[in-house]
Design brief:
Elements lengths: L9 E7 L3 H12 L3 E7 L3 H10 L4 E2 L3 H5 L4 E4 L6 H8 L8 E4 L5 H7 L8 E2 L2 E3 L20 E4 L7 H13 L3 E4 L2 H33 L2 H4 L3 H9 L4 H10 L1 H24 L2 H20 L17
Parallel strand pairs: 1-2, 1-4, 2-3, 4-5, 5-6, 8-9
Antiparallel strand pairs: 7-8
Helix pairs in contact: 4-5, 7-9, 7-11
The chain binds 1,4-dihydronicotinamide adenine dinucleotide and 3-(4-hydroxy-phenyl)pyruvic acid.
The site of 1,4-dihydronicotinamide adenine dinucleotide (NAI) has 32 residues, from helix 1, helix 4, strand 7 and helix 10.
Organism: Paracoccus alkenifer
Keywords: Amino-acid biosynthesis, Aromatic amino acid biosynthesis, NAD, Oxidoreductase, Tyrosine biosynthesis
Family: Belongs to the prephenate/arogenate dehydrogenase family.
Length: about 300
C-alpha cells in the first residue's frame, strides 16, 4: 500500500506501453489518488483489450497521440529499442510544460533516441525503477512493486530542477527512493548489477537445457535452489532483454570480459586443487551479500505466480 495523497500530483498521466511497469505505476497512482486521471496506450490490440477488461487505467486510447494530448506527465514504458519511435510519434502532441519520463533499463541510448524529438518547453527527465519481476504484460503489475526500491533519475544538463523535483516527489509517493545519476554511470552500474547477471542466468539455463538430453531430464526434476533462481531470471521477457543487451552493449561486454577473466582464475584454482583461493574468494563474496541484506536492499523478487501475458 502506498500512502494516501491529499491531492493529485498530476492532472492527467499518460502511460505508453501497458506492461509490468506501467501497470504497476497505474495501480499505485490510482490506489493513492496521485493522478487525476490515468490514460494508457499499448501497440497491440490484445494488450489494450486486456487493459480495458481488467480496468488497468481509467481510459485506454487507440493511439499514443490521443493518450498524451493534455497530459502533464507522460511515461514511456516500452522496450528500450522502441523508445525513439514512440517519442517521434508523440512529440507533436505533447502539451507545453509537460514532464516526459521513461522507465527503460538503459539510459544513454534512450536519451540519444528520445531527446532529439522533444520540443522545447517539454521537460524530458529519463528514469529507471530498479524494481521488477520476470513477469510481463498487462496482467503482471501490482501496486507495491516500487516500495523500498531505488528509482534512478538521469536528468539532462539542461533539465529544469523544479521538474526533476516534481517527478522525484511522485516517485517517492509510489514508495521508491530516488537518486540522480549520470546516464553513462547508470549504464555501467546496471551492467554489473543487472544486465550481466541476466545474461549469465540465460546462459546457465541454456547449458542445463543442452545437458537435459544427456541427463534424461534430471536437471529439471532435481532442480536445486541455485538453478531455480537462474530459471526465474531466465524466464524474463525476451524482447525487453534483447533490447537491453543491444542498447547497453559496451558496458555489458566490458563486464562480461571481466567475468570471463575471473571465471578462468576460479577454474584454474579448481584444477590445481587450490582450496585456499576458493575459500578466500567465497568469503569475500559472502560479505557482499551480507552488506546488501544489512542495507535493506535484498531485491530478490518474490514469485507472484502470475502468468506471462505477451502483447
Ligand atoms: N520488467 C522489469 O523487471 C523492468 C523493466 N524495466 C523497463 O521498463 C520498460 C517496460 O518493461 P515492462 O513493463 O517490463 O515490459 P512489458 O513487456 O510488460 O510491457 C511492455 C509494453 O510495451 C508495449 N509496447 C511494445 N512496443 C511498443 C510500441 N512500439 N508502442 C507502444 N507500445 C509498445 C507492449 O504492448 C507492452 O504493453 C522496458 O524499457 C524495461 O527495460 C525497468 C525496470 C524493471
Ligand atoms: O526480476 C528481477 O530479479 C530483476 O532484476 C528485475 C529488474 C529487471 C530489469 C530492471 O531494469 C530492473 C529490475
Amino acid at each position: 500500500m502506498t500512502a494516501p495523497a491529499a491531492a493529485p500530483m498530476f492532472r492527467r498521466v499518460a502511460l505508453i506501453g501497458l506492461g509490468l511497469i506501467a501497470g504497476s505505476m497505474s495501480l499505485a497512482m490510482r490506489e493513492s489518488g496521485l493522478a487525476g486521471r490515468v490514460v494508457g496506450y499499448a501497440r497491440s490490440d490484445e494488450t489494450r483489450d486486456v487493459a480495458r477488461e481488467i480496468g488497468l487505467v481509467d481510459e485506454v486510447t487507440d493511439s499514443a497521440a490521443e493518450a498524451v494530448a493534455g497530459a502533464d506527465l507522460v511515461v514511456l514504458a516500452v522496450p528500450v529499442g522502441a523508445m525513439g519511435a514512440v517519442a517521434a510519434e508523440i512529440a507533436p502532441h505533447l502539451a507545453p510544460g509537460a514532464i516526459l519520463t521513461d522507465v527503460g533499463s538503459v539510459k544513454q541510448s534512450v536519451i540519444e533516441a528520445v531527446a532529439p524529438h522533444i520540443p522545447a518547453g517539454v521537460h524530458f527527465i529519463p528514469g529507471h525503477p530498479l524494481a521488477g519481476t520476470e513477469h510481463s504484460g498487462p496482467r503482471s503489475g501490482f501496486a507495491g512493486l516500487f516500495r523500498n526500491r531505488w528509482w534512478l533519475l538521469t536528468p539532462l544538463p539542461d533539465s529544469d530542477p523544479a521538474a526533476v523535483a516534481r517527478l522525484s516527489d511522485l516517485v517517492r509517493a509510489l514508495g521508491a527512493n530516488v537518486e540522480t545519476m549520470e546516464p553513462a554511470h547508470h549504464d555501467l552500474v546496471l551492467a554489473v548489477t543487472s544486465h550481466a547477471p541476466h545474461l549469465i542466468a540465460y546462459t546457465m539455463v541454456g547449458v542445463a537445457d543442452h545437458l537435459r538430453r544427456v541427463t534424461d531430464d534430471e536437471v529439471i526434476k532435481y532442480s536445486a535452489a541455485g538453478f531455480r533462481d537462474f530459471t526465474r531470471i531466465a524466464a524474463s521477457d525476451p524482447t525487453m532483454w534483447r533490447d537491453v543487451f543491444l542498447h547497453n552493449r559496451e558496458a555489458t561486454l566490458d563486464i562480461l570480459g571481466r567475468f570471463a577473466e575471473e571465471l578462468f582464475v576460479l577454474q584454474r584454482a579448481i584444477r590445481m586443487g587450490d582450496g585456499q583461493h576458493l575459500h578466500d574468494y567465497f568469503t569475500r563474496t559472502r560479505a557482499i551479500r551480507r552488506g546488501i541484506i544489512e542495507a535493506g536492499q535484498d531485491t530478490a523478487a518474490p514469485d507472484f505466480g502470475r502468468g506471462v501475458e505477451k502483447e
